[in-house]
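Database export, one record per block. Field names are fixed; values are copied verbatim from the stored entry.
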Amino acid sequence: MATYTGSLQDGAPVIPIKLVAGLLERARIAPISTLATIDTAYACNFIQEGLATQMGLKSIRKAKITTPTRYAVECDVYSIRLAFPDGYELQLEAAEVPFLVNSERFGCVLGRAFLKHRYLLYSGPENSFTLQHERGQMRPIAMKL
C-alpha cells in the first residue's frame, strides 16, 4: 500500500496534488499543481470551475448536484487523473463547480467516492492524517452524480 501522511490545516486533511489530463491528452497538456482537501460531507468529487477548460478537457456528461450554497445546480462532469506526492495516480470523475469554498486555495475537493477504496486515518490530537491506497495499476472510481 502507498501511504501519504500530512498535517491538518484548519482541521481538514489537505494534500498537494497535480491534476493531469488523461493518457491520450497527457503529452500536450501540462499538469496543474493545486491543493485538494478531503471532505466526507460530500458524496462526490469536485474541481474548481475553469481548471478543466484550462487543461482542455471535454465534459463527459452533465449532472445536477446540491451543495450547501446551492440547490440542484447543473454542472459538467470530467474524467481527470490525480497525481499524489507519493507517485500514486488515479483517474476519477469530478464535477466542475464555480463556488468551491476557499477556491483561491483549493482546486479540488475529494468526497466519499474517493475514499470508497482508501483508508483515511484522522488524528485530531496529533494534528495529522494518513491516507493509504493500494499501489499498482490505476483504477477508475465508479461514481454517479
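Remark 1: The two ends are 28 Å apart (CA to CA).
Remark 2: Residues 2-133 form a domain with the Cathepsin D, subunit A; domain 1 fold (CATH 2.40.70.10).
End of record.
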